[in-house]
Amino acid sequence: MKKRTSLFLTAAFTTFLFSCEKDIKQTKCYQVKYISNYCTEQGSVLVSFGTTNTDATPIKDNDGKIIEYQAALINVSESYRIQNKIFYVKYHYNSNDNIEIKSCPQGPAAVKVLTVDAVSNDDCNVN
């Protein structure tokens, strides 16, 4: 019985470790549109996504219908910070980034913060 319990605990712990690593290692590519600067102290920008994105914050209308997805992105260069500019990003969500959010909106205006690995004018989903 002890052997089964320890095997079960080992399997559960291993699964937990791999699930925690997923958010750090998984890089994604999406088309985004620049809206504005977001949190001045961390230099992030607010963007909207052209498609459904479960990593971003859903923005709803008065009827509760999702109308777009938004997120704050860290590591976007100044050349992409142009009103309504469309570009592509590869990013990851890292819950261990310990991002300083003192100057970020709190409550309903808050959006998820993602760390950008690459930015391009060209679609990064094309081979």
Topology overview:
Layout: H1 2-25, E1 28-37, E2 45-49, E3 57-60, E4 66-74, E5 86-92, E6 113-120
Parallel strand pairs: 4-6
Antiparallel strand pairs: 1-2, 1-5, 2-4, 3-4, 5-6
Key terms for this structure?
127 residues, alpha+beta, 19% helix
Explain this structure.
By secondary structure, the protein is of the alpha+beta class. The protein has one domain (27-120). The relative contact order is 0.22. It is built from one helix and six strands, in the order αββββββ. Strand 1 and strand 2 form a beta hairpin. It has one helix at residues 2-25, and strands at 28-37, 45-49, 57-60, 66-74, 86-92, 113-120. The model is unreliable at 4-25 (pLDDT under 50). Strands 1-2-4-6-5 form a five-stranded mixed barrel. The chain starts with a helix and ends in a 7-residue tail after the last strand.
Number of helices: 1
Tell me the helix content: 10-25%
User: What proportion strand?
Assistant: 25-35%
How far apart the termini lie comes to 52 Å
Average pLDDT, rounded to a whole number, is 75
Written as H for each helix and E for each strand, in order along the chain, the element string is HEEEEEE
Structural class: alpha+beta
**Shape assignment:** globular
Summarize the biggest pleated sheet: 5 strands, mixed, barrel
In what order do the strands lie side by side in the largest sheet? 1-2-4-6-5
Q: How many structurally independent domains?
A: 1
Q: From the alpha carbons, calculate the radius of gyration and give it in angstroms.
A: 18 Å
